[in-house]
Each structure stands twice: as structure tokens, then as C-alpha cells.
Design a protein that fits this description.
Number of helices: 7
Helix content: 25-40%
CATH superfamily: Leucine Aminopeptidase, subunit E, domain 1
CATH class: Alpha Beta
Strand content: 15-25%
Mean pLDDT: 94
Structural class: alpha/beta
Shape: globular
Number of strands: 8
Radius of gyration: 15 Å
Distance between the termini: 38 Å
Strand order of the largest sheet: 2-8-7-4-6-5
């Protein structure tokens, strides 16, 4: 098993840019790597409605967490698209997993709902740090550029409305293309 990546090792966008005073950029990080290695309060699982594991991020999280996660997920009764549910993290460095179900195809409101629902679950559970994968961009077929725009705008609006709810949100990306998409959205936004 690879070593956990501590949140303190992942710089915020504000720190990378030297921009003090932007609450949003001080709360946001982009990390390229394996979400199952992140030692945060919760990682978000890009789940399907059954939340019983599968391919992509969902399968990787279930494999890394071990059989306890699947056992707990069996008791959840599934999860509707645009919603999220909380479980323990089991064998993961993250204490919890938030299972969020994004839409199949390009449906911005349902994707935004999955991000908001995840952040609401984190807030309600008192979790201070959350790492998101690129929800719905794999086999669910959401175009990565459009999905990233929804993710960034939704998280920004949620943090503005809930300024003391969480300390850190990490966008965990798996490849260079996604890292460039998020960097461009975060660095060139007129609101920063």
C-alpha cells in the first residue's frame, strides 16, 4: 500500500499563486493523483445509484477501503442521481466516503446537485476537508471541460453561502488534461 498524502502536503491555489485574501482560492486545491491516498476527512466517490462499487473511481475506492465499505453500502438502499450518502472510510486514509451520484451525460443541474449534496453531507457531519474526483466524466460520459466548470462554479457558490462550513476542498484529478482544465478555470476566473 502506498503512503497517505496528508492535506498539509497539498498547497491551496492561493498559496500557489501568492494570492492572499481570496477565501475561495484559500479553500481550494487541485491535486493530480490517486484519491484513495488522500488523508482528508472525506473523499467523494463518483458512484452509481446502487453505490455497491463498480469501475473507475468507484471500484478503486471500494478496493482500497476493503470489504467493510461494501457491507455498509449494502445497507444504504442506493442513492438517487444528484444526491449523496455518507459511510466510514474503512481501510482508506480518509475517515469517510461520501457517495455522490452524478448524471449520465451532460445534465448540469443534476451534476451541480451531486456536488452540493456532497458538501451538505460533509457540513452536516462536521467534516472540514473534502476531496472530489471528476464526477460523471468517466463512463457516465459528461464532457470534462463542462463538468469542471459546473464543479468549480457550484463549489464556489456553496462556499460563499456556507463560509465557515468546511476549510478545504480538493479537486482530485487523474490526468494532466483535467489538471489543466481546473487550473485554467481557477486561475483565470474574473472573481479571483
Amino acid at each position: 500500500m502506498q503512503a497517505a498524502v496528508e492535506l498539509s502536503a497539498i498547497p491551496t491555489v492561493a498559496a500557489q499563486l501568492g494570492r492572499v485574501g481570496s477565501r475561495f482560492l484559500e479553500a481550494i486545491s487541485v491535486y493530480r493523483g490517486d484519491i484513495t491516498r488522500l488523508a482528508v476527512d472525506a473523499i467523494v466517490n463518483a458512484a452509481d445509484t446502487a453505490v455497491l462499487g463498480g469501475g473507475g473511481v468507484d471500484g478503486a475506492i471500494h478496493r482500497a477501503a476493503g470489504p467493510g465499505l461494501l457491507a455498509e453500502c449494502r445497507g444504504l438502499g442506493g442513492c438517487a442521481t444528484g444526491q449523496a450518502k455518507l459511510t466510514a472510510g474503512y481501510g482508506l486514509p480518509a475517515r469517510h466516503v461520501i457517495h455522490a451520484v452524478g448524471p449520465v451525460g451532460e445534465q448540469p443541474e443534476l451534476l451541480a446537485s451531486a456536488y452540493r449534496a456532497s458538501l451538505n453531507v460533509a457540513r452536516d457531519a462536521g467534516l472540514r476537508s473534502v476531496a472530489f474526483p471528476c464526477i460523471s466524466t468517466g463512463v457516465f460520459g459528461y464532457p470534462p471541460d463542462a463538468a469542471a466548470s459546473v464543479a468549480v462554479n457550484t463549489v464556489r457558490a456553496w462556499l460563499d453561502a456556507n463560509p465557515a462550513a468546511v476549510d478545504r476542498v480538493v479537486f482530485c484529478v487523474f490526468n494532466d488534461r483535467s489538471a489543466r482544465i481546473y487550473a485554467s478555470l481557477l486561475l483565470h476566473s474574473p472573481q479571483n
